[in-house]
Design a protein that fits this description.
688 residues, alpha+beta, five-stranded antiparallel beta sheet
């Protein structure tokens, strides 16, 4: 009796199949509420089951709710099971009775075991899945029987005694059958969904793709379908294109087209190059990827078409460019070859001749290093490494070729990386520099002879200059004595015989005295110039600031009737120089400044300096009469003057002496001026 009632009760479980099917027809926009909807339906089925129970005694009854909840958990998941379990627990609480807590406990344990089994123990599509589910049913209902011991011990034993056998016989088998039905239904529906999604994706890709796509019947060549991109590419409306035959597009003849389609269907070939006609213009080059596809039980050809007209034009241009390059290389008057894997891969006629070979075959696939002098092998290996690894050109370098007979040939080598015959290599250009090397050797020989002649002539010139300076010094020194005597006698005649010196004799005598005085000044200047030229330098730290002040005060004292002012704009650092020559230099420069400012009410001389790299640049500016810069070339020449003696006295040796002194110190001199705007003299001294 109990077995029959439980079997009748279990029949209601088949309603779960309807629930599962309903969940797949709900619109996709409501997908989020499907689990809750399923839970409500499962709960309603559970309520129906609980209304047809087997009553063991008052307040204690049994039904197939454990099968329902456990299978719901196993197949539907957490949310539907939780919703249904809550509904059944609520209803069981309402029913009350002695078996309340056992009834609630069986709902909770069945749901929990189902959820855990779903996540950890349920296999996917295995041959023995039914056995796994059978053990699942046994586990659920063993726990259900264990829940009976929530009741008093006598009641629990009675329950186990009366219902354990029919429950353990019927419930696990019912669990297996219903679970397999639901899982099969689930897998079938999910497979149908995936097929539908795949078809939708295919249609979307086909229709919306930016690539030209065609479906072709290989039996007759009819175009079954085409996408919008194909319509735009070929220039025919979509419906017109679908009514056309592939032979109206492909420029091959019908037999060739059929043969190519057969290759595509049999998958002997998937990639094709054709020319296709369009509704406008000339045929274009296309690249077609084709393969068989089953559609409504029929094999069709699915083709993706790419316009490669630009690529074909580019390849044609590249081919023409390569032909021009080859022609240029072959006719070039330079040795040109291509190296790959350390061997000759290509060599032009000039290189063949330069290396003394009879034909290219003698060199192709032979080691490149064999044709270079051993002294250069290490350098060449290093350059080849840069070309192959860093892919960078190497700078021009002089090396030596070896001809086939071993004769060395000096060459200038230039190399750049290149990809040739699918291999990395180097394009090498060699220029025969034998004539240049001979010319360089001749030039070196001439230079050696010239250097020797220059040394000899320089020694002779130095000796002549030394002799000339010695002569000038001697003559100048010897002339000073008679000139001093003339000056002294003239002064005696003018002072001791004033009556006799009246009139013309006195005038002549004074001329003689002035001339002798000027001659003495000139000789002193010449001696200074000679000293500046021939004196050996005795460098020491020199305080230039102090020298400028001391010498200026001497000159100021010698010109008491003048108003002159010295402004030191900067503090000039100590310089390593010859102190005696520096005194002479500063004296000459300041003398010039004082002399050429005599027309000014106040003569102003400004001295400053700057540091430029490794030298001190000293400037001496005055507010004198200045000069015309067009005549500045004469300023540093000996005896050169820009003003007459009547305007400004002087010998024209001062600046020449300054230049010689600075040159001996390794410095430079120059001067800037402007008519009636003053002048600025510059000289430099090395810092060290």
């Amino acid at each position: 009796m109990i077995l029959i009632e439980l079997i009748h009760n279990a029949a209601l479980l088949l309603a779960l199949i309807v629930v599962y099917e309903v969940s797949y027809i709900i619109p996709i926009q409501w997908a989020k509420i499907v689990p809750i909807f399923n839970g409500l339906l499962i709960g309603l089925i559970g309520l129906g089951i609980m209304m047809l129970p087997f009553h063991l005694e008052k307040g204690i009854f049994f039904d197939t709710r454990t099968i329902l909840i456990s299978i719901a958990a196993l197949t539907f998941g957490f949310i539907p099971t939780t919703v249904a379990a809550c509904m059944l627990i609520l209803y069981r609480v309402i029913l009350g009775g002695a078996g309340l807590w056992m009834g609630v406990s069986t709902i909770i344990t069945s749901a929990s075991i189902g959820i855990l089994w779903r996540h950890f123990l349920l296999p996917q599509n295995t041959k023995f899945r039914w056995l796994n589910i059978y053990f699942f049913g046994v586990a659920v209902h063993l726990v259900m029987l264990a829940d009976a011991f929530i009741l008093p011990w006598e009641t629990a034993l009675k329950i186990v005694k009366e219902i354990s056998l029919p429950v353990m016989l019927v419930y696990p088998i019912s669990t297996v059958l219903l679970s397999l039905l639901l899982l099969h239904q689930k897998e079938r529906n999910e497979a149908l969904i995936k097929v539908g999604e795949a078809e939708a994706r295919y249609k979307s890709i086909f229709k919306n793709s930016n690539a030209v796509m065609l479906l072709i019947d290989p039996e007759h060549g009819h175009i079954i379908d085409a996408n919008l991109t194909a319509s735009k590419f070929y220039g025919w409306p979509l419906q017109t294109l679908k009514s056309m035959n592939i032979s109206q597009i492909n420029t091959l003849n019908p037999e060739e087209i059929k043969e190519e389609m057969e290759k595509s269907v049999s998958e002997k070939r998937k990639h094709f190059l054709f020319q296709h006609r369009r509704a406008f213009g000339n045929p274009v080059d296309v690249e077609v990827y084709s393969g068989p596809i089953k559609f409504n039980g029929k094999v069709l050809i699915y083709s993706i078409v790419h316009d490669i007209s630009e690529r074909v034009a580019a390849n044609q241009a590249l081919l023409e460019s390569e032909n021009r390059f080859r022609l240029l290389v072959e006719s070039a008057p330079e040795a040109i070859f291509i190296e790959t894997n350390g061997k000759f891969s290509y060599i032009n006629k000039f290189a063949i001749a330069l290396l003394g070979a009879e034909s290219a075959e003698q060199l192709i696939n032979t080691p490149v290093l064999d044709r270079f002098h051993p002294d250069y092998h290490d350098i060449i290996k290093e350059r080849m490494s840069i070309l192959s690894k860093e892919k960078k050109p190497v700078p021009i370098n002089e090396e030596v070729f070896l001809k086939m007979d071993g004769t060395p040939v000096p060459v200038e080598i230039n190399a750049v990386p290149i990809h040739y015959n699918n291999m990395d290599g180097a394009l090498v250009i060699g220029r025969d520099i034998s004539e240049r090397k001979s010319a360089e050797q001749e030039i070196r020989k001439l230079n050696t002879e010239l250097e020797q002649r220059v040394i000899e002539r320089t020694a002779e010139l130095q000796q002549a200059v030394s002799e000339m300076e010695s002569f000038a010094y001697t003559v100048s020194h010897d002339l000073k004595s008679p000139l001093r005597a003339i000056d002294a006698y003239s002064r005696i005649m003018l002072e001791d015989y004033p009556q006799q010196m009246e009139g013309e004799p006195g005038k002549i005598t004074r001329y003689i005295k002035n001339i002798s005085r000027d001659m003495l000044a000139l000789i002193n200047k010449l001696l200074q110039f000679s000293t500046a030229t021939s004196r050996e330098l005795n460098k020491e730290p020199v305080d230039l600031n102090e020298l400028f002040h001391v010498i200026f005060y001497e000159l100021e004292s010698a010109n008491p009737d003048r108003k002159i002012k010295l402004i030191m704009e900067t503090v000039i650092p100590f310089a390593m120089a010859d102190k005696i020559l520096m005194k002479q230099l500063i004296y000459n420069v300041l003398s010039n400044g004082i002399k050429f400012t005599k027309t000014r009410d106040i003569g102003i001389i400004k001295v400053g300096h700057t540091i430029d790299k490794d030298e001190i640049v000293i400037s001496i500016n005055d507010n004198g009469v200045g000069f015309n810069m067009e005549l500045s070339g004469k300023l540093f020449g000996i005896f050169q003057r820009l003003h007459s003696v009547d305007e400004f006295d002087g010998t024209g040796i001062g600046l020449a002496t300054v230049q010689r002194i600075i040159q001996k110190h390794g410095g430079r001199t120059w001067i800037f001026g402007k008519q009636d705007k003053g002048a600025t003299a510059y000289f430099t001294l090395p810092i060290n």
